[in-house]
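Collaboration report, partner site 2.

Our partner group contributed sequences for two proteins of shared interest, and the home lab folded both. The records are reproduced in the order in which they were received, starting with the first partner submission.
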Amino acid sequence: MNFITYGGLPNAKISIEKKAEKDGVLFFDVNMILEEEAVPQQFTVCWNFPIIDTLSTWSPTIKAWRYLAPHWKAQRTTSRTASWMPIHCHFSRDGRNRQTVAVADAKTPISLLSGANDNTAELYCAIEFFTNPVAPLKEYHTTIRIDLRHIPYEQAIRDVTKWWETDCGYTPAFVPEYAKYPMNSTWYSYHRDLVEDDLLRECELSKPLGMETILIDDGWQRGEGHHMVGDWMVNADKFPDFKNFVDKVHEIGMKVMVWFSVPFLGKWSALEEGRENPVYTRFKDMVLNGGTDGFGDTFHFDPRYKEVRDYLVDIYVSRVKEWGIDGLKLDFIDWFNLTDISLKPDDRRDIKSLEEAIDALMLAVHDALIKVKPDILIEFRETYVGPCIRQYGNMLRVIDCPNDALINRGDTINLRLISGDTAIHSDMLMWNVNEPVENAAMQITNCIFSVPQISMRIQSLPEDHKKMLGFYLDFWRKNRDILAYGDIFAKNPEFGYSMAYAVKDKEAVFALYADTAVDIMDMKTAKIINSTRLDALIVENAQGRDFEVVNCMGEVLETGKIENNVVKINVPLSGIIFIK
């Protein structure tokens, strides 16, 4: 590799040194040394890679169009403590790794770029360091990992995840069993219009369908709107006795999670119009912004102050103890950003770096919560995913994409590929109740390799939709070891994944989204979901095996024995072929 570096402070000494080479994986140390402590300026490390059998670029931040892109409009992945991770994987037309680039440092603001150089037919690759302001420092060191092995791209990505976990010190949080069971979430189904008795009825209906937890999203708290948050007290008009509500849900047999927006601090009190929020009064000179973030009079806590971190930790711990809840959804942590007022020095801060402060806050929250409840559920959602976030939480959820099966498919598979054993959850599933039931089922089939979160009012579902939901959640639970714990493979990422499958102990679940043929290889059992809009699939290498076809409600349509090595089997939209 011929690296070129440019940028940085005039007195910065920047070097790239080869550290090791292990079976086709190269490691390079990046070193920056300043003459005296200072705020570093952005610098770039770049190199060229020949575009030979290199079709596309994979990164969880690159969505539907995974083209190479020209170098002057390169594909870009940004990474920092509270957002994403530094990785690009370039792969061939048959889905094999050509070059996978990753950086050991997942905290510092970094961007990875890659694009085709139209002069040389080479891939211009670059890593930009310190893309956002950071605290003053004198030295900086990290490692670039470049994997050139001709292996399946999925394996190259998984190996980066293992490297972050083992060699880079990002040890993932413990994942309780209940993190990998279907849930009922209230956001799309209720938004802020929460009614206690209605929610209890929803729990009574959700539990038999296979949902084990209810997530009470935004709207439970006193003061609706981000401009009145910060004290996190229950809205007594909706929940006169929240602990009693939680106890009733527990009696039904479900767990309870509660939503909190971590950074937000509202200026106004929820108790008296025009009165300042006492929490704002206390912390208004320990914030990151001036309340101009689009949410009106909403500010963001500055976690560089120990007093701020202690307050937030105490809020979450006290609420878990007081209410007996089983988990927290901790939202919006990617909104911690430095602005003009927070760039000024303040001797009261015990941590200079915002990235280090976010890390310290979230590690403190995690450690304090597991002391209270070792199996507590902690959810984060995109964009706050990655090796840092996996230390703090055991559930990662797809970004809000209501009724959008394609985003849910792509992002759940992306997160499964890069997130190891952390529980990956779909965005909350919703659909129009007037949809044909087969279409409604596609919301589930497109995120079948993640833990389904349902956000439909069960009481209002048509009977066929309710039957479909019960069948698919039962199918998911029966195949949970494969779907949630198995190795996942996904074909044609450049097309948004035409087919994906998960395998464990030679048992597999396949989901076809565009491909119409599936080779079951040497699997002991195979379940094949038709999400292609076609009414038949081609199955290979299943000769002599018994099969059964069911529709999206689990009704048996056909049984028999497969007579040929290649066979066409009729199966309706959202139906499943079972092969034994």
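Second partner submission, folded after the first:
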Amino acid sequence: MAYNFPSDVSFPPVQPREVLLVANGDLRLSANQKCWPAQKEMEDALAQAVQACGYSLRRAHPFKPDQQHGFIGSQREGMQVFAGINPAAPLIVAEAVWQYSHHLLHGLVTHRGPMLTVANWSGTWPGLVGMLNLNGSLTKAGVRYSSLWSEDFSSEAFRSGLSTWLHTGAVSHPTEHVRPLASVSPGDDERRLGMALAKQLQMQKAIMGVFDEGCMGMFNAIIPDHLLNPTGVFKERLSQSALYYESTQVSDSEADDTRRWMEQQGMQFVTGPNHSEDLTDDQIRWQCKMYIAALRIADDFGCDTIGIQYQQGLKDLMPASDLVEGTLNNCQRPPVYSRDGKRELYAGEALPHFNEVDECAGLDGLMTYRVHRAMGLPPENTLHDLRWGDWDASGSTDQYVWVFLISGSAPPAHFAGGWKGASSWRQPSMYFPNGGGTLRGISKPGEIVWSRIFVEDGRLKMDLGRAAAIELPAAETERRWQATTPPWPIMHAVTYGVSRDQMMARHKSNHIQVAYALDAETADRAMMAKACMAAELGIEVHICGTQKDGRPWH
């Protein structure tokens, strides 16, 4: 018998003082084409910085003239690229855009050489968001890596960090703002409450409804069942196709009643006649049908929280799910009844929704909802992208202000003016050919708790900290919107005791969870109660930053 033996597998030799570069991109051709000029500009600046350190930078994959971009655009393409990369070569993953981590995670998991993830610092071109997701995915996968970020790659701090990595294979950043929960002393009431809520969750258990896992390559957003289940939460794996079908069963009159309710509360829909560019009445009707369908399916399966896959799948059938997601996260929302009309579903409650089906945010959001309900605090919470940050150009504050910007919707309870401060704009056509409206507003000033659950070393971990959502002048808010994505809701956030670079060095996700309290004291107590609940559930907890007045936690 003759065998067809594969040819010998060999890699190009590692060249002295040469560094390879890979650029991961989006799955959508339109996004890759639009973002390529910004990526090219970044790569040119990065090559100059590498050269200034006495090394050369070479792309490991070519520009594709037929597609008009040079990104890795799929997992298969990524495998082909890494098949030609020596696993011992120094490697930079350069990101000026959002990227699908699974396109190259396979290659990074088996790469043995020094690895550096690099992001631009821009609101318009969200490389830092893409890098944070990749970093969280690498952390979950147990891969060693270093990270750097810069506005123009010519600063002394960036060049110094790059030189350190080139000569030693690693660069680190200070994280002295992070303290284990064991070094902090929560109040007795908060400790007892957290422990009681944890015991209740583990004994009575909860269901996390997942409408298709793995949104946009976010490996870090999937909690393995063997880590999730000990917390008392179990997945109900649902399908977007079921959500689409159930939406088709909702009558026009029910959907129109939902929109009418929103408009009576003060919601503004920014509509137009052109389906390809405008938010149309028909798109809004379909979104309202999806809202009703989501609640009915959640009720069918007894879900305590749900997450809908974002962008891929449903985008080819229906308008975006954003209006649905933000509305679900609000306690005051349009009533929805069972199919026979006899029961109001989740009456008086939000149905916590984890956007982009980020299960880490789902577990965090469910815990937050229960802690805040038990303390009599506003239970509405949501994730945001840690999108960008900048100093206030208007000079109204000398604090560094983050742009927390979720990619479509936040609960109106978070907005200045509530529903009256909410509007709906069409999602960008680059992402959503069938349109759909966002749930947009400016987050109201107030004390908040931020948090993030992530997977590291084969276990669940949680970081928590305190911050404030602040008010900025209208012109400064508009500047930040125009520098990012104007149709999306925005929060101006100031983190207590955590600098820009400390946040970037530590945070293991592009997402950050936020919830309001009544004042600084209740926010401190809510944070500690949730920390104690998480610890009792077996999650390793760290407190980040300081109290509002700058004092360390004690």
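Feedback sent to the partner group on the second submission included the following. The chain has two domains: 18-168, 183-544. Residues 46 and 153 are 6 Å apart (CA to CA).
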